[in-house]
Write a structure and sequence with these properties.
Structural class: mainly alpha
Number of domains: 2
Number of strands: 0
Shape: globular
CATH topology of the largest domain: DNA polymerase, domain 1
Distance between the termini: 39 Å
């Protein structure tokens, strides 16, 4: 724990091998000075943290920071995508969110810019070793609405 006291993390599985593998994973995380298990945090919460830390510390121009801050708060924080826990967020969710932004008649440039803070927040989390499944390269920018719908359908099926 952060206060120096120890705590027990229990793992379960349907076969004898499953909990052994999970326990090895937990030990690897602890050796890397990471918590045994990520705290549950939503994309919106993480984006707010990202706005107040990584974005503010970046060397981007003030106008760019303001644009990212505004788009992130408008389209991520407090939205359906923002309510998703990061460990449950999949590329198909991000693709569906982009379709939703298109349906709201946002310009392509606004959608790309709104996607930037979400992508950067996810990248920042992955870079710090807290998320290995979804990285920015796995949530590619779609080229057309049909491609997005097809990709979202394939990911769910």
């Amino acid at each position: 724990m952060e206060d120096g006291s120890s705590s027990r993390h229990t793992v379960y599985g349907s076969t004898a091998k499953e909990p052994r593998d999970k326990a090895a994973e937990v030990r690897d995380r602890l050796r890397a000075n990471l918590p045994a298990k990520d705290r549950k945090i939503t994309l919106g919460e993480f984006t707010s943290e990202w706005i107040n830390s990584a974005l503010e510390a970046s060397d981007r121009k003030a106008t760019t920071k303001n644009l990212y801050r505004t788009l992130a708060r408008t389209h991520i924080v407090g939205s359906r995508i923002g309510a998703r826990p990061l460990d449950k967020l999949r590329p198909s969710h991000i693709d569906a969110w982009k379709v939703e932004l298109k349906d709201r008649r946002l310009a392509e440039s606004s959608i790309r810019t709104a996607y930037g803070p979400a992508r950067r927040a996810r990248y920042c989390r992955a870079r710090r070793g807290k998320d290995s499944e979804v990285t920015p390269s796995r949530a590619a920018v779609p080229h057309c609405r049909e491609c997005v719908a097809r990709r979202a359908h394939q990911a769910e099926g």
